[in-house]
Amino acid sequence: MAALFTGKVLLANREEIEVETERELSRALDNKVLLLYFGAGGCPRCRRFSRLLKDFFLRLTDDFYVERASQLGLVYVSRDETEQQQRAFLQTMPRRWLALPFGDAFKRELELRFSISEVPVVVVLKPNGEVLVGNAVEEIQRLGPACFQNWREAAELVDRNFLTAQDYDEQSSRSVTDPLRRLKYKLAKKKKTTMAKEGEEEEEES
Fold first, then answer.
1. How many CA atoms within 13 Å lie on the side-chain side of 173?
2. Of 108, 107, 76, nearest to 92 (Cα)?
3. Which of 22, 96, 165, 187 is deepest in the core (most CB within 10 A)?
């Protein structure tokens, strides 16, 4: 599923971190049922549904409700009028939600691809990108978290990637900070090697 966003940037942790490398996108999206949520914070219908979707998502992924986080991801594709409106909306939603940056041209491409006219719409995708449900809003309203079992079976997810809710958090945290940590490690290693060489040269001169 990461292939859908290859070369794109997604925002994580309520717009604080950019998820853009192939590895980060793979960890965030692969082998999961992915929900594309087309909505707007200023839309009354979206506000009502968003509260329901928030509860739906938390009951499947949050350690307050489940020991193991379900293989479920969500990308918010906004029709908000301003960046501030999008940011304010995301601040009230689960921190595991990803989002397309405000004003990203890829939003229009997704709207055309999935025939989005009015919002709210939740497109449910298999890990391979195939559409499971064109608009799951009514199904989520009617069945709640129970509908995820049907999606999971239809998507033929691989069970070995199930994570505890805590592991989910730790892996997500590692994935978005790994490049920075690797860079710091390389710089520290280079500095250590340089200092060692200088020490050897001083010994030879003495």
1. 6
2. 76
3. 96
| Beta carbons of 165 and 59 less than 8 angstroms apart | no
Other CB atoms within a 10 A radius of the CB of residue 82 amount to 12
Q: Write the CA distances from 55 to 5, 60, 152, integer angstroms.
A: 26, 9, 19
Is this structure's pTM higher than 0.90? Answer: no
CATH of the domain at 85: 3.40.30.10
What pLDDT score was predicted for residue 180?
Answer: 42
The answer to whether residues 46 and 38 touch, using CB atoms and an 8 Å cutoff, is no
Smallest Cα–Cα separation from 160: which of 91, 68, 98, 76? Answer: 68
Segments forming the whole domain that contains residue 195? 179-205
Q: Residue 167's pLDDT is what? A: 60
pLDDT digits (tens, 9 = 90+) for 80-113: 999 999 999 999 999 999 999 999 999 999 999 9
Question: Does 55 lie in the same domain as 111?
Answer: yes
CB 2 within 8 A of CB 98: no
